[in-house]
Design brief:
- Helices cover 39% and strands 20% of the residues.
- By secondary structure, the protein is of the alpha/beta class.
- A five-stranded mixed β-sheet has the order 1-2-3-4-5, with helices on both faces.
- Helix 1 packs parallel to helix 2.
């Protein structure tokens, strides 16, 4: 594979708005046993196939030992995105590669955590903290000691989760408005 970064994807076709897009930058170094795909945007039903096709392309021929999906700039992950990640993992395993997700942004991290998939993608439990520490995303602090969190910390975490869920609901409503139901539904 070419060592220079490659770019895959841009704004998805659709309603003319920029609500569904996924950018994937591919980086591979000669002699390296790893290929990195840097994901930016939304991994949902409109973009899931794009990721799967690129992973298949990367694995075609001499597959890398490790395929890294850097999710630092992934702003949204829904059930279609989860299904896509699992399909990518199956493809990687079938090719003898190991797929890992690194640097997940807060919302994708929470989705993977809630669904119990952090371990499936070798995501470190404190990965979200590392991503959010240097950027505008807010961190959901986890206690680093065995001391239980105080009530105020729990209330703050619950509020952050509530706000993230509200944003997800608003996106779902916008999608529903942009894409009318299919006939027969």
């Amino acid at each position: 594979m070419d060592p220079r970064p490659a770019h895959q994807g841009d704004r998805a076709a659709g309603s003319g708005q920029n609500s569904h897009w996924l950018r994937i930058d591919v980086t591979a170094h000669p002699g390296s046993a790893m290929v990195r795909l840097c994901l930016a945007g939304e991994l949902d039903r409109m973009t899931a196939e794009q990721l799967q096709q690129l992973v298949i392309q990367v694995l075609d021929g001499e597959a890398p030992a490790t395929l890294e999906l850097d999710a630092a700039d992934l702003s949204f992950l829904d059930s279609s995105g989860i299904r896509s990640l699992l399909a990518c993992r199956r493809s990687a395993e079938a090719s003898g590669s190991r797929l890992v997700v690194t640097n997940p942004a807060r919302i994708p991290y929470q989705v993977l955590e809630i669904t119990g998939l952090l371990e499936h993608f070798a995501v470190a439990p404190d990965a979200a903290r590392a991503v959010t520490a240097g950027g505008p995303r807010r961190n959901l602090e986890r206690p680093t000691s065995t001391t239980p969190p105080n009530l105020q910390q729990l209330v703050e975490q619950a509020e952050q989760i509530r706000q993230a869920a509200g944003a997800t609901r608003e996106r779902a409503r916008a999608i529903s408005r942009a894409y009318p139901p299919w006939p027969g539904r």
